[in-house]
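We treat protein structure as text, and this decision shapes the records that our systems exchange. We quote a single record here, exactly as it is kept in our systems:
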Amino acid sequence: MAKLLLLQAPHVVPRFNSGRSLISASALYRRPLLVNPQLSYIGPRLRSRFSARALEDSPASSAEMEKEKQEQRRDGVSRERDEDYPTGEMDYENRNAWESLVVKFRMLFAFPWQRVRKGSVLTLTLRGQISDQLKSRFSSGLSLPQISENFVKAAYDPRIAGVYLHIEPLSCGWGKVEEIRRHILDFKKSGKFIVGYINICGLKEYYLGCACSELYAPPSAYSFLYGLTVQASFLGGVFEKVGIEPQVQRIGKYKSAGDQLSRKNISEENYEMLSVLLDNIYANWLDGVSDSTGKKREDVESFINQGVYDIEKLKEEGLIKDIRYDDEVISMLKERLGVEKDKKLPTVNYKKYSGVKKWTLGLTGGRDQIAIIRAGGSISRVKGPLSTPGSSIIAGQLIEKIRSVRESKKYKAAIIRIDSPGGDALASDLMWREIKLLAETKPVIASMSDVAASGGYYMAMAANTIVAENLTLTGSIGVVTARFTLAKLYEKIGFNKETISRGKYAELLGAEERPFKPEEAELFGKSAQHAYQSFRDKAALSRSMPIDKMEEVAQGRVWTGKDAHSRGLVDALGGLSRAIAIAKQKANIPLHKKVTLVEISRPSTSLPDILSGIGSSVIGVDRTLKGLLDELTVTEGVQARMDGIMFQQLGRDSLANPIIDLLKDYLSSLR
């Protein structure tokens, strides 16, 4: 029962040159990016920081820049700086008379189920998990690409008067929250209203809600604006009581997965890492809320520290517009749109509006094509019994898609969109190789979502350029391998197991009824060290960084995107729109020119996949139990996975059952 786990880290936020003034990266996020994440990308006036600097810099400052680059090369770092990349930022442009006429003409020929009544309000409810994958019409749940596209379409759709956004408790990560917030702010540039409604006010929910034009809540709404917490679970005491002895080989002082199995309390290194992550997330939240509400950062923090639970207090402080029930908000919108009281407010929901074609609204792309390859979920070599479509990264399937893009001449560039905490190390390495080969034929940009750590980062580092969100969790370049000795447990329950073997090390991973022999322990440690050095050295090579400098940022440490950027693990901060703009720059496509985005990982609409999605909810318990039994009895290969505790606690609802959390954390460390 031995597994090797590799850990990683996230991203950072720099400064950008805009006009004559310097704007912080957080300001860039507050000015959202317009992206059509499915088939096309519309960029009426994409700004390039590179071209801006070329016009503004004096010869002296240009010489200073060149001198700095030469110093970076001497240090072994020769990558471009963040401000050398285009931001992907977009200014909304009104259509001219001819463009409006063409759109109206196309609307006449839309299918009945794609028609929307003029003056309609787009209704959207955000809740729970939000997938970074495209969803078919048969799939349930929310899809970030479709949410993003709906905001873009609604901004340009003359039939849409505004958006009514219900925000329920979210369990997605901060990377996706940042992307959605960016689209909310972009939508506001159209001049249309976006009204938010919140029942349970947590930090993520309010972070999105305060970006809306107006935010309402019912009198009975719950307020949980108390701050941020992160919890780490330790199983050392549990194992000791039941007679299980974890034999852990940890490479990297921040490799907390080993602590989870063997310790009874948190280590100094793990405490340091978690504290820094928490500080980054909290600071980003305070800055965003301060910007949206117009309040001073210290005043927002002071309000949080008061422990406010009464929603009335949020109204008094100007953190929400008013306290109203849902029907009262709808009545207000009817009055605003001139709808009679006895008539229904014309609305179109998320699912129906997702079927409205971009062609109808004149949002199709140009002749140049950029491939989007989505990689989300845990990494494995083959499809497991618990896998559902789009829930994991199957190396063989993704490699086929990467090769198809490499062999095709129609794609000018490719974007690998990653949302993965890692998984099988061998699978990660095989995909790294294919992405590296792809990057030798055309520009490849890695775009990180909530998490791209360990095996997820392994994939990303093969790209020419890495783009991460401010709070993406990334890095985790480290290894931990563990085997469980069950001798005391077997003795307690009266179980006996005899092993007959041939070969000096044949029982290295199979004889759990006894501890390691000295020579076995030595081999076990050397194997882990070899896996770590291979990962670290490839990361150093991919990032044009000396090994000793990579060692400083590796050691299993998880970083936010902001900190990872400042340490050279990523190149630029932003969302998918910025990745697209950089891809255009690298492919020598003018930034103002439209491109067509081709989704390579489109959702399957085959009958077997549809039935498997339905069946997973019906017989899921039976399959889960079987999978857990398999997991506890058979383990294969080295794992490149970020610690499950880290990702789940920082990226989900804190009100979940702690017992379930403990089991999930334990099982994720074994996978």
About this structure: Residues 117-226+307-359 form a domain with the 2-enoyl-CoA Hydratase; Chain A, domain 1 fold (CATH 3.90.226.10). Confidence is low (pLDDT under 50) at residues 1-77, 612-636, 645-649, 651-671. The longest strand covers residues 473-485. Residues 268-293 form the longest helix (26 residues).
